[in-house]
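Hi R.,

As promised, here are both runs. First protein below:
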Amino acid sequence: MLTPLSLVLLLVPAILAADGSYRTLSTASNPDWMMKVPDSASLASISIPGTHESMSISGGDLTECQEDFGASADSLTAQLNAGIRMFDIRLRVNDGNTFTVHHGAVYQNANFDDVLNKLDAFLGAHPAEAVVMRVKQECTGELGSCTDVSGQASFIDIFDMYRDNSPAAQRRLWAPSVQRGSAAGTPIMGAIRSHIVLAVINGPQGGRTEQYGLSQFSGWNDGDSAWVQDNYNVPNTGAIATKRDQVRRFLDTTNAGDQTAMYVNFCSGSSLFAEPYQVAGGGGGTQGVNPFLLIYLGQGTDVHAEVHRTGMMMMDFPGGDLINKIISFNALLV
């Protein structure tokens, strides 16, 4: 017979599995780590910890992807202080030509103004830092997703309204990356300090919207593309092993491939039978991506090919040790 304690243990396995790789974001404190990155360093050379569905803290195990440090983008501030520098922001068109943050049908208790204002405040206090942001139009209108409010301006027209009218956006958006008709080249660190670099705007079905973002990501579609690994369908907990291998192989490509190119490696995945916390931390007896990645990054060339950079690692529920480990590779740039 199950006791009350055993019921609790069954219901909260993710909390019990917390370790240096998983669900321990607040154990990392790296608010100024980019200060040591040389101005001449290309964005492509920098190892950047990032988060997938960066604002997804509500809705239960199927939708939550990050630890909850508070609504109105307070969780974003916690990630910034830990050292996260790439964010995956999913937006719904709402009344008044505004954006609200969603994961599928679930409102994440934050609006795009919250995102911009928290990034603005952080970059104002830490001007040597820079942030990379991917924006995606979240609503597909399909079952399980959201539907944009009708009668509003188009998604990109609303984005331009924020760009042109939000004081935070005007201070922080790196202008070459937020132009509808012209993409930006890969910047160096000295050009983007205290700014938000837009990597891409993706439409609701994937694919790049107009020319917003960085030119290298012109082919950023739903799932994998030339410079992006995003095999997000993990059909069951046994398939977490396949996801681990996809992350590993793309990390190897990041190190052996074009060293002038940016690589974005999504460590996340989910399905009805492998929820985000299980893919990240482990489930069904299968090691999660996060603990695997922490071990892999700590191994030397006697075990596998050299890792001298990680690219942009997009994680669910990252732990403090894993964030610190990714940042540590930037010592090679000095």
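And here is the second one, sequence first, then its structure tokens:
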Amino acid sequence: MSLSRVVVESTKPKLPKKLKPARKQVKPGDVEKKETVQTGKEYNIWYNKWAGGDREDSYSNKVKSQTRCSIKRDVGLTRANKTGIKYCCLFFARGCCPYGWECEYLHMLPDESWALPDSSKDCFARDKFSDYRDDMGGVGSFTRQNRTLYIGRIKETGPGPETEEIVIRHFKEWGEMEKIRVLQYRSVAFVTYKSELSAQFAKEAMACQSLDNDEILNVRWATEDPNPTSKVEEKERLEEIGRAAIQERMDPKIVDAMRAVRALEDEELLEDEDQLDTEDVQPTEESGDERGAKRRRLEAPDESQKPSGLLSADTIEGLKYFAEIRQRQQGAASIVKRAPAPPQRSNGLALDYGSDDDDD
């Protein structure tokens, strides 16, 4: 049984109007690096691990994170606010940055309006790859804009709506959420953010964290939604973002000029059609079938023909038609001028007789 819900209300946390210098989340040496005891028969010096151990559930060997970021307490100004760096601090997201205001990266949530200097990097300045990892972990891929997180190993202690409220309460801290879906009795949830940057931040902030029942979450990138409706909506959303980005970069004067040219082209097309109507009334040398075919071609142009310049396809077709008419008229006039001269009549005595030699 699955429960899905579209989160309509704004879940983006409110930040203070005037930020203070970022505080140091931990002191050097506070975080102890703990690793689970590895079981195995042979030690692999290449991977620095024991081989041949228990591999039934590799994620159960994960250690719960010792720190967690708190947006209300930890957000503040750093050196990156003066240097203009647009990347967030990875250790700040995990709640263990010891530098505070001396950090070279931002200690704040990424804004969806940010334009990162390099689209092949995530919000933490880590390089993306062409393909996702087999377990859908890691940084991610630059071939797809993924805004959905897979959250596994949730301990359900109540009905589906209760689990849904718990997930929303813990994940709304990292950005504005678009929708959430909980698979009841499967301990799995899917959270979709409105911004890909928010999803990247939330993935690192909630990795190996717990909700209300002291579990260790498995946070990964979600695979592509096979629903055709979701694919169409995602395609339309990306196209709308692309159009908005192009309009922002275009000069408003150029846009107004192009609209004026388009209006002039439409007026010229109407005038050409009126002139064509008056010429159709007058008799011409063309047959009715030819005039009807050309008229239909002007009234119903091919939709596949798109304007490649300032003039539209209808205007270009009309100009070709009038040029053809003018060429035919000039051709007819040249034929009249070059009419063949009448044959010269010879004298009556100069008849066509044979010579004297023919008699011999």
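A quick note on the second one: The radius of gyration is 38 Å. Let me know what you think.

Best,
J.
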